[in-house]
Structures are given as C-alpha cells and as structure tokens.
Amino acid sequence: MILSRYVKEFPSPEAPDQILLFSCRTGAVVRVSRATLAAARAGTLSPTAAATLERHRFLTPDRATEREEMLAWFHRINADRRRAGMVAVLTRRCNLACPYCFEGGQAPEGDMSEETADLLVAMIGREYLTKGWRVDLDFYGGEPLLRPDLIRRIATPLRAAGGELFHGHLVSNGTLLERTVMAELVPLGIESVKVTLDGPPHVHDRHRPYGGGAGSFRDILRGMGEVADLVTIHVGGNFTRESWREYPALLDLLLAEGFTPARLGTVRFTPAVGGKGRGCVTCEEPWLAEAELTLREELVKRGFSVAKPGPFSCMIDLASDLAVDADGSCYKCPAFMGHAGYAVGTLRDGLHGIAPAYGHDIWQKDECFDCAWLPMCFGGCRFMKLAEAGAVDGVSCLREYLDATLETTVRQAA
Asked: What is the mean pLDDT of residues 224-228?
C-alpha cells in the first residue's frame, strides 16, 4: 500500500518533526512523523501503521486501482444510498424583491397546481417510500409560505404513507413565519426552516427588501422567535464582496436576541452567485478565501457549529435527488430551473435521464484525476460555471480556493 494521491500534507509548527495529513476522500485528519510519511510514500509501513492509515483511506494499493475507485465513486454511492433529497417549488411568487435573486426572470410567476402536487406525492410514494427509503423534501419558492395549503396537501399523504421516513423542510425568507401555521405543519412531518439573513439590519434590508422597499429583517426575527421551539431553524446568508465584513455584527445581534447556538441549527454563510446583482461568478475571485476563513472563525468564536471539511457530493450526481418546478418540470438542481436544456422530464410524462448539459462527468479527465482535491470538488459547482460562461462547458475548478483555505480549516477541525 502507498500514500493516496488524494492526501494533503500540512506542516505542524508545534511539532516540527510531524506532519498533519488530511484525506480528501474521507475528511479524516491524522498527525504522523516524517519517518512514517516517508514510509507511506515508499510503501514500507509496518502492518500496524498501514492498517490505521488504510482504514481512513490515506493509502491505496496503486495509482491505477485508485483511479478506478474514483471513476466508480458515484456508482458506489448511488448503489448503496437509500435516501432521496427532493426540492419542490410551490410558487414562483415572492413577497421580497432581492436584487441578486438568481431565480428572477427565469420563469413566469405561478403556483403549483393541485394536480401537479398530487403527481409529486404519487411519484415520491411510488419511487421511494414504498421501497422503505427516507425522503427529505424541501418546500421551496418563491416563498413557499404563500401557499401553506399546498404544503399540507403534499405533506399530509406523504406523512401518512411514509411515517418517520418522510422529513419535510421549508426554505423560506422567514417573513411569513407564524406559530399557528407552523403548529399545523409540524405534525405533518415539517421539522425545519431555513431562513436567510444577509447581514445586520442595515445591510439585510438593502439586499432583501419587500416589493415596496421596506426592510424585512425585524419581521424575520419575529417569526424565528415564534417558531424556534417548534422546528429547527437554520440560518443562511448570501454575502457579496462588499457585505461579508458585516456578518460578525449579525452574529452578535443574533446572540443578543437570544438565538444562541443551542437554539439554532446550522448557521452558514455563502457567496451570492450570479443573479441580477453583484454575485460572484467564479470561486477564484481572490476575496472569497479571506471571506470564508474569516466568517468561519467568527462562527467558531461564538460557539456556532461549522461543517468539517470532507468529500463533496452534488445532487446532480446523486441518482435519487430531484428538483421539481411549480409546473411539474424536473431538474437535477434547483438553480437550473427555467434554464433551457436542463429539464430531465416532467411529473406527468416521466424522467428521461440526466441532461448532458449538466456536465455531470466533466471531471473525468487526467488533470482532475491527478489533482489531490478531486473528492472535494468533482468539477465544482455547475451553476457557478453556467453563471461564468453561459454553459457548463468545463469544470469550475476549486484548486485555487482550496489551496488558500483548507489548511486553516483543517487545523480548526483538528
């Protein structure tokens, strides 16, 4: 066994004779002596040391075998997986007018019909619940709470058919959160709400105003407070080059308002991508690394949990995952809804396989196979590539970004 090509090595200042190893295939971190590292490279490890490192995928029999394992990565995941991640757009209407909205102008405003809702229920039951699979369904928009009746129409039969296999989630702007509504939805399997806060009030209200121009921040905080004991609240935020430095103030405000780490689920801030505003269109923009590392550190300092680095899977590559638009058109990623050439079928007519335009296997080339970051990238975000080039005509390479950020992230995790 020899050292995997998908292992990164970082110096250990506190122990100069040791090296920190990170496995991009598993997210495992281990500290080893320089002598052990040299033996791993040469394939001369002792059986005990080799067994430990092999268990966490730091080792591979040879380069050819490892390449074949990477080619089969998603085949293996899909063969073993017994879970479906679904996204359902209930309405294209929204009561906010965010200038960066990547959905703006993609499709005409409209609501999902009751017939389409029933087709969605039938498909999920037939393809997943009857097979004993877990289903995580995100109710999405527009603003899904403009149509709580549709949430009930879909969740009620799915909960009845699947019981604890059905898990419902809302992706909401948070302005319409009310305790009475959520108290009706929780027994139907709705267990979490993800809301978006784009910074402290003076920043958020500029980026996420109501259609008439008024700010939405205080209404969202009010709604969060009403339902925080009923469902798990996840907080996201879409930062830009100009706004990311404001986010620590948002964290302090959340804590001051009683939204402590114990009271919230995940808190995660990501860059705005494309859209009509000033979202980034490539992960190589130099300010991104500084923003990501700084915000991660600020979250950790305040006790919020952050995701550990590890291998990446996009729903485009997961066979059971699907996004369903309000008209019943199906896509492999909600960001592509309304873009010509990316539909993979409809609820009424059935699915016809992933559209080549997604470039789901675009990473299967020598340059990517030889890159240590491959398991954490697999070609990068397809939508970011679409925003950058107008088509998924190549990888959205994460090498530069990961080179700039991962060592710090690994040290925090370790």
From this structure: 98
The pLDDT score that the predictor gives to residue 277 is 45
Work out the pLDDT band at 360, boundaries 50, 70, 90: confident
Mean pLDDT, all residues of the chain: 93
More confident residue, 209 or 272: 209
Q: What is the mean pLDDT of residues 343-352?
A: 95
**pLDDT category of residue 27 using cuts at 50, 70 and 90:** very high
Instruction: Write out pLDDT tens, residues 294-347.
Output: 999 999 999 998 989 999 999 999 999 999 999 999 999 999 998 999 999 999
* Domains annotated on the chain, with CATH: 2-66 (no CATH), 75-301 (3.20.20.70)
- In DSSP terms, 23 is beta-bridged to 7
Buried b (16+ CB within 10 A) or exposed e, 135-171: bbbbbbbbbbbbbbebbbbbbebbbebbeebbbbbbb
Q: What's the whole-model pTM score?
A: 0.93
Contact 273, 280 (CB under 8 A): yes
Name the residue among 315, 251, 299, 316 with its Cα closest to residue 412.
299
Asked whether 62 and 2 are in contact (CB, 8 A), the reply is: yes
Assess whether pLDDT exceeds 80 at residue 193. yes
Q: In the predicted model, what is the mean pLDDT of residues 36-65?
A: 94
Could you count the other beta carbons within 10 Å of the beta carbon of residue 410?
Answer: 18
